[in-house]
UniProtKB/TrEMBL annotation:
Signal peptide coordinates: 1-21
GO molecular function: methyltransferase activity
Keywords: Methyltransferase, Signal, Transferase
One of the protein's GO biological processes: methylation
Protein name stated in the entry: Putative methyltransferase
Record-linked InterPro entries: S-AdoMet-dep_MeTrfase_Alr7345, SAM-dependent_MTases_sf
Keyword Methyltransferase included in the entry's annotation: yes
Gene3D superfamilies: Vaccinia Virus protein VP39 (3.40.50.150)
Organism: Rhizomicrobium palustre
Length: 251
């Protein structure tokens, strides 16, 4: 029995390595980065970083903003994926200072480890970028702009600022925990979820085109009635992964 289990585990590891090897070099380099903390690597199975990089079109030389980077899970990955010719701006909203529980120092430490990462520490409503960006990426944060973390965040203003910061054709990637359909903003402060239709409506109203969805983080078994931090669902919530594009003719 032990031999059979070992064989299964070995087979799974070999398949994972083979799958990673089949990815573009920038992705394999990013995920093989030995500087990544062990706790980050453990989360890869739930967060699907290789698929996120592919979906976001983050490539060597790209200029990327990691909007609300937390402890820098994606910041580290982006830094390696864009390489020395690219740049990553970790936008850490100052509204989170009282809630961050040490994460602001963490992202500053990440910036010291990666020479192509810089931290922007400013109010969320003052969002801007030092140069035109290829991608703005935010994971599991959009709902927070509607709750007590960011009051008085103005998502209309934030989305317009993201639009302005991107190059024509640039991408805005939004990942978040899905709420029940039709619930709007009802659950943002209680369950930390948001109705994906509300997100799509707000972002397209800022001038973006909806450019597609990845379903790799979907979980149809999530009843969407539990707080995302509930042990019964944490790390396994139904998440939407949306891609929005700034039109090529936009200024």
């Amino acid at each position: 029995m032990k031999k059979m289990l070992s064989a299964v585990l070995l087979s799974g590891a070999v398949l994972s390595m083979a799958a990673l090897a089949a990815k573009p070099a920038a992705i394999t380099t990013a995920l093989s980065d030995t500087a990544r903390p062990a706790d980050d690597v453990k989360r890869d199975g739930d967060r699907k970083p290789a698929e996120m990089l592919e979906f976001s079109k983050i490539k060597p030389g790209a200029k990327v903003m990691d909007l609300v980077p937390g402890g820098g899970y994606f910041t580290r990955i982006f830094a390696k994926a864009v390489g020395p010719e690219g740049w990553v701006y970790a936008y850490q909203p100052s509204e989170l200072d009282s809630f961050s529980k040490g994460k602001s120092p963490k992202i500053l430490a990440v910036a010291k480890e990666y020479p192509n990462v810089s931290v922007i520490h400013a109010p969320i409503n003052d969002l801007s970028a030092p140069e035109a960006l290829d991608v703005v990426f935010t994971a599991q944060n959009y709902h927070d702009m509607k709750d007590d973390f960011f009051k008085p965040a103005d998502t209309d203003k934030v989305n317009k600022a993201v639009f302005k910061a991107l190059k024509p054709g640039g991408l805005y990637i939004v990942i978040d925990h899905a709420a029940e359909k039709g619930s709007g903003l009802r659950d943002t402060n209680t369950l930390h979820r948001i109705d994906e239709a509300a997100v799509k409506q707000e972002i397209t109203a800022a001038g973006f085109e909806f450019a597609g969805e990845s379903k790799v983080l979907r979980n149809t078994k999530d009843p969407k009635t539990a707080n995302v931090f509930d042990p019964s669902i944490r790390g396994k919530t139904d998440q939407f992964v949306y891609k929005f594009r700034k039109p090529l003719k936009a200024k």
